[in-house]
Amino acid sequence: MAFSMHWHDADAEGACRRVHGDVYGGSHDAAGMRSVMTAHSVKSRLRQLLSILQKTYPDAHCALNFTTPLELLIATILSAQCTDIRVNLVTPTLFQKYRTAADYVAADPKELARDIQSTGFYRQKASTIQRCCAALVQQHNGSVPDTMGALVGLPGVGRKTANVVLGNAFGRPQGIAVDTHVQRLARRLGLTTELIPDKIEQELLVLVPRKGWTLFSHLLISHGRAVCKARVPQCDTCPVRHLCPSIHPEGSE
User: Fold this and answer.
1) pLDDT by residue (tens digit) across 87-100?
2) With CB atoms 3.0 to 4.6 Å apart as the test, which of 73, 133, 159, 162 could cross-link to 101 if both were Cys?
3) Is 146 part of the annotated catalytic residue set?
């Protein structure tokens, strides 16, 4: 579903100074260019970027398969250092076997680790899942909470995981999920110069309308997987290449 951009010039000007005031450096990194974008260019560029990306990826959505908040929470934990495709191969059997937070807590740690082995770092993930689910049982009657504060208070849950769950399982976005794709594209597209995900998120929150926070992540992730890849970005076929400061620095022809 499309979302429109609503701007306030003072806020955009301030965001522009915060986001683009640093010295840039890097070939495929917008953080490598010496440029201060005006409030108008920030508004115009982001509107156009999102419009094109929505048309290019009309079905952009959460790539992890789930039917309940608990399933999405577990899947997101498993997705660390693992592809969503691999996670989706593991979770159907896993979710049939472990239906509640209490089921994960009661599981034999070695058996749970074997069940998720193909996702990598399986012993650590099994431990995280059991500690997280123990907290759900003890503090939330086995249910996944629907607030940022409660979610990040769970073992192994940071803002990215909390944002994924809140935006996709509950439809109550309280932030923007910044994974490696969002982190990379936000910098290449000149939306931030920050390196730390939490700081990137705070700058994006100023620029992107709240109702578009969840979709924004899906659009950048879709584009990052299909075109704007980490090692070899497909710039020649990129639908937003004419808007990308990594290709066209401010002031260039």
Assistant:
1) 999 999 999 999 99
2) 133
3) no
